[in-house]
Amino acid sequence: MQTHEIRRRFLAHFENAGHTPVPSASLILDDPTLLFVNAGMVQFKPYFLGEAPPPYATATSIQKCVRTGDIENVGHTTRHNTFFQMAGNFSFGDYFKEGAIRHAWALITGSQDDGGFGFDPERIWVTVYENDDEAERIWHEVIGMPAERIQRRDGRDNYWDMGIPGPGGPCSEIYYDRGPEYGVEGGPVADEDRYLEIWNLVFMQDVRGDQSPKYGAAPIGELPQKNIDTGMGIERVAFLLQGVDNVYETDLVRPVIDRVQELSGRSYDDGSAEDGVRFRVIADHVRTGAMIIGDGVVPGNEGRGYVLRRLLRRVVRNARLLGITEPVLVDLVGVVRDAMGPSYPELVTDFPRIAAVAAAEEEAFLATLATGSRLFESAVSETRAGGSTQLSGENAFLLHDTYGFPIDLTLEMAAEAGLDVDEGAFQSLMGQQRARAKADAASRKQGAADHSVYRRLLEEHPPGEFLGYTDLQAATRIV
Ligand code: ATP
Ligand code: MG
Ligand code: MG
Ligand code: MG
Predict the structure, then answer these.
(1) Which among 59, 202, 334, 348 has most CB atoms closer than 10 A?
(2) What is the mean pLDDT of residues 117-140?
(3) What region holds the Alanyl-transfer RNA synthetases family profile domain (predicted)?
(4) pTM of the model
(5) What residues does the ion ligand 3 have nearby, CB within 5 Å?
């Protein structure tokens, strides 16, 4: 089943049940807690927080999401995109747990001839919050889910809140068992790769205080009006229904992999494991880049612009590691436009602008690479002349700091030249630089709308980790 059909069926299911269809919000909303919209409920926050009356009792949407916190997973796990589409249904004081569970069940196990996704009910597992007897009872008694496929999880996985006093509530997550060849038995608590999470249902029922129920503290009250917020990953459903191996091989992402095979002359399916990761990273990141530029971000050194820059440069770098030396971004963004255009017409109408932004960034980065490469070459000669096989940490740091040369590129190029790199010394120089940045940051005045806060967070964490955004997003994680 193609992605556009999965989207259509989701919306049709909920529209038939009286939900108002609401278009995706932009990835960029005026929300100081978020760099990018990362869940379907973000645009409905004022209704959930009681700041505005909801114009409808129930709604459904397919929201564009970006989760930079997942960047290091991309290409390595089977299930994490940086850009993905979260399909959701929302109830503002209308139906609650039973309604949400019944809807999700009907859609995922409903026959394909009847507008459902046709998943085998025997392969579905669910989790509920550790003390949510009500959800467990509904799954077991109303739906008929055998008790052994219902697992309880604590608040770290199955409790939602916004990290601040306000609404909160238990979650129930729905998983599909891909089968014994994909991991160990024992349900989602044992293996999240074999058991693929497809849908999260949030039951907003509590008022939480200063202490988070996530970590065991009891909520301080009950919400006067109970709400439902759900999120189903379109790419994950497509991954399963298309019989491919991961979210990067689904119909809207795979075309980029195919184009990169043509450009590089290397094979994705029969190539090395390292190359496989590179193909997937390129396909994921170029799509995210196109969507972010589409919503008005330009590359820069702070906040959203920095995320975009990092994504685009990772595309270019990985393309080079696959042996491509020519510029690739405009070409690949064109592939994204063709794949995603039917759902996101702005990619088509705005293509000249999107392509121009991507082209300029690539040109700048290729210039960086060109200058950096000269320094790299002389560092290699120097190393060899000194009878060593190890590039110094100072040189790796200089390449990173002055030429914006990512360390993994230095490592890769050094390996090609038969050298390794003094990574310990490199990391310690990076650590010193971060300490300086931290001291700088501490002495700088803070402002609420000051996006340099993101930059500072980024500086405080090693580039490979990207924890600044993970933590920021975790604090406001929605479903
Ligand atoms: P996971 O545990 O697999 O990282 P999650 O629990 O962080 O997922 P939720 O926050 O519950 O995900 O988001 C709701 C749904 O959105 C998930 O059930 C999944 O189907 C989808 N989803 C979440 N993150 C991603 C991602 N990085 N790429 C693709 N789909 C995603
Ligand atoms: Mg996650
Ligand atoms: Mg999860
Ligand atoms: Mg989840």
Answers:
(1) 202
(2) 98
(3) 1-479
(4) 0.86
(5) 197
157 CB near ligand 1 (under 6 Å): no
Q: Residue 86 CA: which ligand is closest? A: 1
CA of 142 to the centre of ligand 2 (A): 29
In sequence order, the 6+-apart residues with CB closer than 8 A to the CB of 24 are 61, 62, 63, 64, 85
| Residue to probe by mutation, ligand 1, list 27, 74, 84, 128, most atoms within 8 Å of CB | 84
Classify residue 24 as left (phi > 0), alpha (psi -120 to 50) or beta: beta
Q: Which of 6, 80, 252 to mutate to test the pocket of ligand 1 (most atoms within 8 A of CB)?
A: 80
Mutate to test the pocket of ligand 1, among 62, 197, 214 (most ligand atoms within 8 A of CB): 197
pLDDT at res. 291: 98
DSSP 426: H
- Percentage of residues in the chain having pLDDT higher than 70: 92
Average pLDDT on 364-379 reads: 89
How do beta strands 159-161 and 150-153 pair? unpaired
| Tokens (6 digits) for 232 | 């189903």
- CA-CA distance, 108 to 116, in Å (whole number)? 6
- From the CB of residue 411, how many other CB atoms can be counted at a distance below 10 Å? 17
**pLDDT (tens digit, 9 = 90+) per residue, 376-394?**
999 999 999 999 999 999 9
Question: What's the mean pLDDT in 50-77?
Answer: 96
What are the tens digits of pLDDT across the range 427-451? 999 999 999 988 887 776 554 334 4
Whose structure tokens read 């590179």?
Answer: 278
Ligand 1 atom 19, closest CA: 233
Distances (CA, A) of 222 to 1, 47, 53, 172, 353: 41, 17, 19, 18, 49
Q: What pLDDT does 84 receive?
A: 98
- For residue 221, the cross-strand partners are 207
- Asked whether 41 lines ligand 1 (CB < 6 A), one says no
pLDDT band at 35; cut points 50, 70, 90: very high
Distance 153 CA to ligand 2 centre (A): 15
Predicted confidence band of residue 333 (pLDDT cuts 50, 70, 90): very high
Q: What is the pLDDT of residue 308?
A: 96
Q: Which amino acid is at 401?
A: D
